[in-house]
Amino acid sequence: MLPPGYCSPSHAMERVAGVIHLDTSVGGGVLSPEEMVQKVKEAGINVAVITDKDNMRVEYGISPLRKIVKKIQERNSITTFGAENYLGVIDDISKKNPDMTIIAGVEAQPFYYWEGSYFSNDLRLVNLHKHLLIIGMESPEDFKDIPSVSYNNPAVFDIYCVLNVWPVLLLPVGLWLVVHKKKELIQARMFSYKKVRRPFVLSGAVILVAGVLFTINNFPFCSPLYDQYHGDRGALPYQNLIDYAEKKGGMVFWAHPDVGGTHTLNDIEISTPPYSRELLRTFNYTGFSVFVEGMKFSGRPGGFWDVALKQYINGERQKPVWAIGELDYKEGAWMGDTQTIFITSENSKTGILQAMRGGRMYAVHGNLKPVLEAFQIWDDRRGIWTEMGGTATAVQRIRLKIKAYLPEKDTGTANLRLIREGLVIKEISLSSAIDMELNDEFFNPIFVNMENNE
Question: What pTM, to 2 d.p., does this model score?
């Protein structure tokens, strides 16, 4: 059995270019899935990872009847389009384009919350655009059951499940008051008679209507794990999503974590601050997205990626954290500006997904697209060169092999930076090709960063 990350000469690996995070008209974009794939094909790219929104639903309810007195805004998404239809469309397009690898993913919107009040005219919607990409799930049911504050929000089974049943108790009381009769003897001059009255009809009707409304509002009685009315819930909604996707065989990548923004819509401020710190607050996700914004905080030397890698090396994380190039494309002339290069022996859906899981990939951005032919570390324990994404043990020094070049069509210079423990230990100007072996003192982790200098 070959060790993780090992590549024997008889199983040569190829570099396959792909674009990740494509929004189609199914959920969030302009182009149809067919038009999107055609754009990718025209750009000469082999792999397209389509990640439409799982849901685009926002709801605001007025207390105390939030589930009844409410306003809902919902746009196109996988939920409204139908998970079966979504996967079916992409499967059909894949069959029509056998020379390409087309993968259906999701851009998940697990949580948002409200600040302020509608009545005080200071309503604010927070973290609506705090997203994660899910790639690798297969069945429509897995897509349908993605947890979010809008759909499939898990319930908490506690004492409040009992306490929230209180409106049901009003129903028999209200009904009894409505139907309760009171007989009175009416004495006239010549005769007497009995009159039947219902003296509590009005109060009973009020109680009955209140009981019905609050029963509907409180159903299914158990409180959700989180909702949009009680402030920021930290990492909880996102970790819940990560755990779900992992159980379903999916990979999770934090989408555009360094990008924030604020705008106003219908007098409501919509704000999502950068959330790159979530790389350290959440666990068992596969990686995060970089370029261009990603190099500001998460991917820069000494940034959150370095910290997360150190946590893995120190046993504080079960899984390493990988980086992908994120395009976040809807339409325009910049298709392929950011790419993920997959290192795989099989240019297929299975091969691409395996490369993603194993960290055998790197991201490129801009006009220059450097090719990383080799990034290998010598494993002293096993006596082999370990490929990108593998794990190696160094006894005293790290032996490192790097082979990279610029394609002939690329004119310019790329800066190659070797990063160890968050510090740049070597910089190399790449204008044509390099083939080098380095020996370095024992430190982990170590990785390469290529920056365009066009």
Answer: 0.89
